[in-house]
Amino acid sequence: MFNFFKKKKEEVKVNPFIPLKVREVVHETADTVTLYFEQPEPYLDYKPGQFLTLVMEFEGKEQRRSYSLCTSPYVDPFPGISVKRVPNGLFSNFLNEKIFPGKTINVLKPLGNFTTDFHSKNRRHYFLIAGGSGITPIMGILKSVLVNEPESIITLIYASRNEENIIFGKQLSMLQLANPDRLKIIHNLSQPSESWTGLKGRISADVFRDLFAKAEYEQRYQEIYFLCGPDGIMDTAMKVLEELKVDKDRIHRESFYSAAAHQAHEDAIHGINTGILTRDVKIVLEGEESVVTVSPEQTVLEAGLAAGLNMPYSCQSGLCTACRGKVLSGQVKMDEDAGLSEKELAAGYVLCCVSRPLTDDIKITIE
Ligand SMILES: Cc1cc2nc3c(=O)[nH]c(=O)nc-3n(C[C@H](O)[C@H](O)[C@H](O)COP(=O)(O)OP(=O)(O)OC[C@H]3O[C@@H](n4cnc5c(N)ncnc54)[C@H](O)[C@@H]3O)c2cc1C
Ligand code: FES
């Protein structure tokens, strides 16, 4: 009797994926496409700036990647993601070359904290700082502010390689024309054509200093900062925000790639000794405790998945927090912690996809 019910329980496992049918493919630049999806039933529930986790099989192996929604649920009838090619990248090249309207892609429900609460009474100055494909979540936020917050203003600082590489260039010009008093766009091109008269080269701290410092003296608005792009541009902006002692709660930062996590992964699989030993780790998932053996070349997530645990994850680089857990005892080493806030780190939260065991008594609960 007991076995019968147990089996029944296993069979009715809820499908964790949302199948999204591609409605339209728009070639934004030579190396970036936007995929718009038909609305599923019920409609996709997301916040501007959140991301989708795409789940696909390559050579018989399930792979996942995160892609930010470039659309706004308040403006756009259909959700969309924009994908920029990475040299030799598995997903980004596949999505740029092989996806056509009518194809269905499985995704996980939207996740991410790179967002805010939009309210018609807000009187904010949004500083949106984007580089390359980092414009994607920024675009969703920008459109949401314009439509929801008539009293707020926006300054977008957007770094691209050259004129042809400006993703959403036309859409942005149109939004600026329609909102001349509320939206200011500053483009910075690293390799512009000779006729370019705007900012060029590496974006300097002085550009940010000038813009942010002026805003600090203007009392009418509350400043709020969203940064998404390569580490160089985000670090430069962060340095200036630290100089100005801007409250950390008003700064939102999203990274798409972690060189540190990538290097640690390469070192681990090539057996480069990092002092990590094979250890047993207790993982509490959906109230059930399992003991998983984690070898030096594995992260806690990799060992858990290999042991058959249905652990949540998306980027596998310590950036998106989908795999967040809380350490109840013991100590882990994280290859990357950019996804977690100082408060979360202090409270004992860890990212299982980049965590390696340091002690024998580790117990992590996935909440
Ligand atoms: C929260 C989040 C949101 C994201 N949103 C977007 C988005 O809106 N649009 C978008 O285009 N991408 C986005 N990304 C990045 C995306 O998830 C993939 O990492 C990216 O498309 C590369 O995947 P791939 O399979 O093509 O490359 P892979 O096959 O994973 O990588 C191929 C090689 O390139 C290296 N590599 C991968 N990415 C980079 C990089 N950015 N810079 C330098 N080297 C790299 C890898 O280390 C590897 O050596 C996001 C990532 C996160 C974590
Ligand atoms: S899966 Fe993204 S932080 Fe771990």
Shape field: globular
Low-confidence stretches: 1-9
The CATH class of the largest domain: Alpha Beta
CATH topology of the largest domain: Rossmann fold
| Count, helices | 9
Give the overall average pLDDT: 93
Strand content: 25-35%
What do we call the CATH homologous superfamily of the largest domain? Nucleotide-binding domain of ferredoxin-NADP reductase (FNR) module
- Distance between the first and last residues' Cα: 31 Å
> Helix proportion of residues, in percent?
25-40%
Total strands: the figure is 19
Number of domains: 3
Outline the structure in words.
- The chain is 25% helix and 32% strand.
- With 367 residues, it is of the alpha/beta class.
- The chain folds into 3 domains: 18-110, Translation factors (Elongation Factor Tu (Ef-tu), domain 3); 124-254, Nucleotide-binding domain of ferredoxin-NADP reductase (FNR) module (Rossmann fold), CATH 3.40.50; 273-366, Roll (Ubiquitin-like (UB roll)), CATH 3.10.20.
- The strands form 4 sheets. A 6-stranded antiparallel β-sheet has the order 4-3-6-1-2-5, covered by helices on one side.
- Strand 13 (279-285) and strand 14 form a beta hairpin.
- Flavin-adenine dinucleotide is lined by residues 51, 65-68, 81-84, 86, 88-92, 133, 136, 254, 256-257, 262, 315, 319-320.
